[in-house]
Design goal:
Elements lengths: L1 E6 L12 H9 L4 E6 L5 H11 L4 E6 L1 H14 L3 E6 L5 H5 L6 H9 L3 E4 L2 E3 L2 E3 L2 E5 H15 L4 H13 L3 E6 L4 E12 L3 E2 L3 E2 L11 E7 L3 H7 L15 E6 L1 E14 L2 E13 L4 E4 L2
Parallel strand pairs: 1-2, 1-3, 3-4
Antiparallel strand pairs: 5-17, 6-7, 6-16, 8-10, 8-15, 9-10, 9-15, 10-13, 11-12, 13-14, 15-16
Bound molecules: adenosine-5'-triphosphate.
Adenosine-5'-triphosphate binds next to helix 3.
Length: 293
């Protein structure tokens, strides 16, 4: 094992940066060759990963949130080798949660050093990859709004505030959802293409999603009255919304194509992307090796 730790100093409003001394202290007690590199700008983690793999580091550990993990994974996918490690240092850390990686950074490091790995699926969309959840509709608007609010309120409560504001203001969107075996046209509040179970800081959007089964689970929440929405929404936190079958459907599919008028805001592993007219989510035949049990 030769490990490169890629630390995003701004992840989790500097939570990841504060983990550097802990990583040094614990790693110095081992005989493992390691290096710690801090990113200096967005997207740089991909280039750092590629360079690290070329220098002979076989394990690249993302120290940050889901955005950092995604960028490191992109480097591993581009090179076609290397094992991904995760030390949760972000705000939400939902992929770690979906993978049962401890939220405590020290425990996550020990778990990683035990060397157990798992091959996980990932999806492709417009040249990007996603490991956890790609979603659209109300929740993508929540993430977009949260990007503004978290600059003012530097705490995970910003997400709750964004959520309440969006619940009150959001209008549904007409989508045609093409799956392997079905095509559905409906007004949706939210649709989530899930590889992992959790997003948004622990919301169990898709309890039946399995990160290594080769499929996406697609959760579709249909248009409903605001009153109904306020009663149904709390159920999402525990994954109980899927029992409200009048409004919520779940499909299993290898590929998903969405068609819509004008623009759609997507939330891909916590990052916002705006797309036009249509977008496809494709399961990739390649897998990513991750330190997880
Ligand atoms: N040095 C840097 N300066 C500014 N932004 C950076 C830097 N390094 C990485 N980034 C960007 O920070 C963004 C957020 O990272 P990340 O998702 O890991 O943290 P988070 O948002 O706190 O956690 P989570 O997604 O789990 O809620 C990413 O889009 C990444 O490109």
């Amino acid at each position: 094992m030769k490990i490169l730790f890629v630390v995003n100093p701004v992840a989790g409003t500097d939570k990841a940066k504060k983990l550097v001394p802990l990583i040094k202290e614990k790693m110095d007690k081992t005989h493992i060759i390691y290096k710690i590199t801090l990113t200096s700008k967005p997207k740089e983690a991909t280039d750092i990963t590629i360079k690290g793999l070329e220098e002979g580091f076989n394990s690249i550990v993302a120290v940050g949130g889901d955005g950092t993990i995604n960028e490191v994974a992109m480097g591993i996918v581009q090179k076609g080798y290397g094992t991904l490690g995760i030390i949760p240092g972000g705000t939400g850390n939902d992929l770690a949660r979906s993978l049962d990686i401890p939220q405590d950074p020290e425990e996550a490091l020990y778990s990683l050093l035990s060397g157990v790995t798992k091959d996980i699926d990932f999806g492709r969309i417009n040249g990007k990859i996603f490991l956890n959840v790609a979603s659209m509709g109300m929740d993508a608007e929540i993430v977009k709004r949260n990007e503004k609010i978290k600059k003012i309120i530097k705490s995970s409560i910003s997400y709750t505030i964004s959520m309440i504001m969006t619940l009150a203001l959001y209008k549904s969107k007409r989508l045609t959802i093409e799956l392997d075996k079905d095509s559905i046209e409906t007004d949706v509040l939210l649709a989530a293409v899930s590889n992992g179970k959790y997003y948004g800081g622990g919301i169990k959007i898709c309890p039946m999603a399995s990160i290594d089964d080769g499929y996406f689970h697609v959760v579709i929440i249909k248009k409903m009255s605001k009153l109904k929405l306020f009663t149904l929404f709390p159920l999402v936190f525990k994954g109980e919304h899927i029992n409200i079958t009048d409004y919520v459907s779940v499909y299993k599919s290898k590929n998903v194509n969405l068609k819509f008028d004008n623009e759609l805001i997507l939330n891909i592993d916590g990052e916002v992307l705006t797309v036009k007219d249509s977008v496809s989510f494709i399961t990739h035949s390649q897998k990513i090796k991750v330190y997880a049990k």
